[in-house]
Design a protein that fits this description.
The protein is of the alpha+beta class and 131 residues long. It contains four helices and five strands; from the N terminus they run E-E-H-H-E-H-E-E-H.
Length: 131
């Protein structure tokens, strides 16, 4: 079995040689999408506009942050991953109501599909992963 790309973060795995590899398009797209969400604009060399930069929104007022994140995610996906169709972008989904009102917690659920590959999946990021 061959791999499509390296699994991040890199770690040793003797199954594919030196490092673990991703073997499905679904996992590769999910990893690239997560990379797009967590990369801050200006962080990627030679492409200063790439990335949503979720970390930059953590200390903004909640309503302003949610609106800005939604707009930035939609813009970045249409520019860098146009093969993805976002079906749902939800904040603090499924959290205990006591936690959901905590201004220091942010959970983002993105349900999306890739029509050309007949893939439907979701990605969930929590404050700990964003920070």
């Amino acid at each position: 079995m061959s791999g499509i790309g390296p699994r991040l973060p890199l770690f040793r795995d003797e199954n594919f040689g030196n490092y673990a590899l991703i073997t499905s398009y679904k996992d590769e797209i999910k990893q690239n999408f997560k990379n797009l969400l967590l990369t801050a604009p200006g962080e990627r060399m030679m492409n200063p506009d790439f990335g949503v930069g979720l970390r930059n929104f953590l200390f903004l007022p909640r309503e302003a942050a949610i609106s800005a994140i939604r707009q930035r995610v939609e813009g970045q996906v249409s520019r860098y991953m146009p093969f993805i169709r976002i079906n749902k972008l939800q904040f603090n989904h499924g959290l205990d109501p006591a936690i959901a009102t905590d201004m220091n917690v942010l959970t983002i659920l993105i349900e999306y599909d890739v029509p050309s590959l007949n893939i439907t999946t979701s990605l969930t990021l929590q404050s700990e992963e964003i920070n």
